[in-house]
Amino acid sequence: MPTAPWMTGPLLLPPDHVLDFSQKQKPKQKQKRGEGDASSLTATVHGGRSRHAMRGIVRSIRSLGDAAPAAAEAGDEVAAPERPPRPWAGAGEETLVFGREKKARAPPTAAERRLPAAELARLRSAARGTERRWVRAKKAGLTPEVVEEIARVWRTRELAAVRIVEPLRRNMDRAREIVEAKTGGLVVCTKRDILVAYKGPGEKLLDDIRDSNCMSPTNYNRNESKKENLEPRGTLYERETNRLLDGLGPRFIDWWWKKPLPVDADLLPEVVPDFRTLFRQCPPGVRPQLRDNELTYLRMLARPLPTHFALGKNKGLEGLAAAILKLWEKSLVAKIAVKVGIPDTNNELMACELKRLTGGVLILRNKFFIILYRGKDFLPGRVADSIIERETVLYDQQLAEEEARSKAAATFQLVDGLLSNPCSIGTFREYQEIQVNHIDRKTELCEAKLKLEAEKVRLEKEIKEQERQLFNLTRKIEKSEKVLANLNSSRSSSDQTSDQELLTEEERQTFRTIGLKMDEHLLLGRRGIYDGVIGNIHQHWKHREVVKVITMQKGIQQIRYTASQLEIESGGTLIAVEKLRSSNAIIIYRGKNYRRPLKLLPDNLLTKKEALERSIEVQRRGSLKFFARQREESIWDLKRRLRDLEEEIREITPGKSAHPR
């Protein structure tokens, strides 16, 4: 039976061997690491499963493998028992490598395939000085102006440096392909965001580049399709996407992501003759609206899909709408990228126009992409035409049955005085009359009336809601006033003493100067005047004659009222009320005949807790009154709009003559 690497003997003992536990076992001598000790493999390796830990395990395995040859070279006479083969020995120790895999080498560029190695090396060494003078590309890609500027550089030099900007800078391989396709040259060097293009051995003139076939998107796409027909190029993903987009329109050459290239929606026709939105009909029992989980699923589904179209204009999208309707026969969603660097583009206008033309559902819109879902009620063109044709046949059949019924009823009617008007109850003619007289929604007048009626109902509901909110606010205001009345009942103002000390103008000016220079002050907060404030004033007057009270109130009348209340409650003399930088100071003199009261906290004022409750309640009542005033103004405005709307409805429906048929 095979044993584990760390065991020195077989797992099962022979029957003649008996373990004797009476004899003491000799302690094992510790072996050095790497001398055949298997514990080095299971020793603690710091780092968990990191790269450093893996290297440590590999070194331990190699040290165990090198222990056996080292013992043989030392000349051991006693042969060691044969060990079973290690689990990793069969695969070969040389293949047990945990190093980083090398990346696959990139395919050679067009310049490496066409130019000799010596010529390519010469051009790359010459390209070092051209990086300082470069032609700047546009955000929209390599526009004709950029290509013409490259051709002007080629008139004097054989190399032209092109600086690529966002968003094409994200994919420099794609930028190299675009430069080679539009200019007809070869990119010999790439450094960061600069491409150095070689004009080639032949002379290239500006007119030749402008009129070349590589500048035309149609010819470029035709050449690409010919190459793909000769041999399959690209991955299966690219080939399937190209097969899906074939026939929808020319491709967008300046695409800044990897292939496959999307369809250039700007090159599609702005007006399509006989264009109409397809007929839509939901299957029975299916709601056309999307739920939240369905919307999330569609967005997740559209994320890895390729981009189908690239759009850079706001109007004239009938050609794009026709292509989207054709694409929806094979795909659930249409993914449209918004071109970068084109002025006067608005993704909101694009989405609204496409939604109006196609009738789809907008599931995502931002400054990069517009994604449209075809909808649950989408029907392919052939299916929609067959349904319309079938409904037309049924309508004609109903007309024929109604005509036959009328003829049969006319033959059986009595010719005598019993002849009366034919009854149309339950017939197709009655259905038509109901449609024409009562449910005729096709006329503009009827549609306008329906919109006005809907707006009227909405305004009435909003008025009721505003009145309900106003009623609730009024009840809360009444409740707040009751709470304030209870708090104010426990508060009473003191009477001002008639025997007040008289101060001269010089004394007042002196006390005012002393009070303004004082660093010690008493801050009056949101609680206002309560028993603690009066007690702190008496504590200040214990050491000095003047007290300075700082208040953050803004209104001058409110500040004066606060100053008079402090003068009455404290029993001092008000010296001045001064305006500071961000607050106001109230200076009060204690008087010449001041005597410290036995009880600092007066009983006629609120406590600190009650003062805070009163302050909060006053603030709450003020907010409630503000919102109640807003509700009243809103109700008045809604009622005015409702009266104007009723006048419009009366003008539309004065009589039946106003309804055209």
Mean pLDDT: 79
State the distance separating the first and last CA atoms: 101 Å
Tell me how many strands there are: 13
Major sheet: size, sense and barrel closure? Answer: 5 strands, mixed
Helix share, percent: 40-55%
Shape: flat
Coiled coil: 442-490
Pfam family, one: CRS1_YhbY
GO cellular component, one term: ribonucleoprotein complex
Domain CRM: 113-210, 288-385, 501-601
Describe the protein's architecture and organization.
By secondary structure, the chain is of the alpha/beta class. The longest helix has 46 residues, at 444-489. Among the domains are: 1-8 and 31-75; 110-215, YhbY-like (Translation Initiation Factor IF3), CATH 3.30.110; 240-377, Translation Initiation Factor IF3; 382-411 and 422-437; 505-605, YhbY-like (Translation Initiation Factor IF3, 2-Layer Sandwich). The model is unreliable at 33-42, 75-80, 90-96, 225-231, 415-419 and 656-661 (pLDDT under 50). It starts with 38 loop residues before the first helix and ends in a 9-residue tail after the last helix. It has a 5-stranded mixed β-sheet, with helices on both faces. It has a 4-stranded mixed β-sheet with strand order 1-2-4-3, with helices on both faces. 45% of the residues lie in helices and 9% in strands. The protein is built from 19 helices and 13 strands. The chain has helices spanning 39-42, 51-73, 110-114, 117-126, 144-156, 172-183, 206-210, 217-230, 236-245, 292-302, 318-327, 347-358, 381-411, 428-437, 444-489, 505-517, 531-541, 556-570, 608-652, and strands spanning 134-136, 159-163, 186-191, 194-198, 263-264, 309-311, 333-338, 361-365, 369-373, 522-524, 546-551, 573-579, 584-589.
